[in-house]
Sequence to fold (489 residues):
Amino acid sequence: MTNTATTPDGLHGTRRSLTGWGRTAASACDVVPVRTAEDVDRALAAAAAAGRGVVARGLARSYGDAAQCAGGIVVDITGLDTVLESDLDAGLVRVGAGVSLDSLMRAFVPRGWFVPATPGTRYVTVGGAIAADIHGKNHHRDGSFCSYVTRLSLATPAGRLEVSPESDPDLFWATAGGMGLTGIVVDATLRMVPVETATMRVDTERARDLDDCIGRMAERDGEYRYSVAWIDTLSRGSRMGRAVLTRGDHARLEELPAARRRDALRFDPAVRVRVPATPPSGLCNPVTVAAFNELWFRKAPRARTGELQSISTYFHPLDGVGAWNRMYGPRGFIQYQFVVPFGAEDALRGVLTRVSEGRMASFLAVLKRFGPADPGPLSFPTAGWTLAIDLPVGSPALSPMLDALDETVAGAGGRVYLAKDARMRPDVLEAMYPRLSEWRATRDRVDPEGTLVSDLSRRLGLVSSPRPRRGARRGRARSSPKAKQSATR
Ligand SMILES: Cc1cc2nc3c(=O)[nH]c(=O)nc-3n(C[C@H](O)[C@H](O)[C@H](O)COP(=O)(O)OP(=O)(O)OC[C@H]3O[C@@H](n4cnc5c(N)ncnc54)[C@H](O)[C@@H]3O)c2cc1C
Fold:
């Protein structure tokens, strides 16, 4: 919602109420659109001079409050949307940080190149992908996004820096998963992955319960590049954790029917339907969701191999439904995503039992296996099981349940994904991210005044607040009443 137009500190910004994809915890921020690297430098310099907080925002697909800064400046980087250079002999592309993975796929799949990791939506920017060090269904094999970033240009309060894993490994890896708090990525060079077709070859199988599912994944995930299990969170008793497992790889040209080979790299997905601004109430309740889950489980084949699916059907089924995040109603929803190490399957089982017994209306949940972590101190993926569950906000039981799940996850040596978080308490953060002080030391090097801040960083105490300069006008935090508490409280 747009409130008032402002010109803070010489910058043309618009005061807007912002939320993440989960539509919780709104806060009022001055949104400054940028089109060039110099615009980004100016926004940072103005924020620093005024002692105001500033953070970047991409396509706002993080679920919580990572891409907003109550009372401060939010730099909208989606205008940095140009493919700057490509060297496809080497599979390298240099792009503005506001380029979306959707645009990258539309530009490069027809030329035989795919992104190294894709989340469950194509509508994320390269800057957002780096800041969250995103993972795809191939993490167990290929690792996360930043392992494919060869260099980046980072605008910081200490100036614009050219950073690569070789030139400044500490800053590079602090930026990977650093949630925009080490600087604003202006452009980056990515290593793409060659593909022969725009089609996926997919094997599907049903698992009768959680143990059956994790057994099947542990046994045969190594044979597949991509693997994901969709779990029915409302099934209980002997069927608790029943799942549909889909695994596959990019189809090779010879695997397509002859008629499709001529146009094998065609990629043109469309949004098929849109959820209205005010969807019918009561759409998401345990009865409708249980019915949906039952239908979805029964519809899946017990076992099918070699099915040819489009990239969007396999990776981004929800992108076909515009604004699906409205489906959970006006109070929004939380996505709870955590990882626990291999060997901590009891913790995974404990979380799922608690969610299924709590009868929260969640349309399925997604289970994946992570491979080894990359060097980023705040990067989320570490070797183990990761489960992501959408949960509608509204039930008074939600907040205490999630607090208890945090304890289980932290106790098992696991962590919650900051790009999805909207409600975690700060006291569990250090246990989940034990290299936090190492990350803070690197960050302080490029932002000694603490100018880069977000609602997420304030809520979790990730960084210190900006120190006011003498005579500087401080941006007062003006958040909506909802923002004064965490999203579920
Ligand atoms: C349907 C859906 C499915 C998803 N599936 C997955 C998944 O499978 N795996 C996964 O890892 N994630 C997944 N996500 C989360 C998503 O990939 C991340 O939250 C990603 O960061 C969103 O990118 P964005 O451009 O929307 O960034 P925003 O949400 O706008 O911002 C996210 C963070 O990035 C920072 N940021 C943005 N641009 C820059 C920049 N140029 N420089 C520095 N910092 C910047 C922001 O400050 C903020 O901290 C999913 C999200 C949705 C909605």
Summary: The chain is about 25% helix and 25% strand.
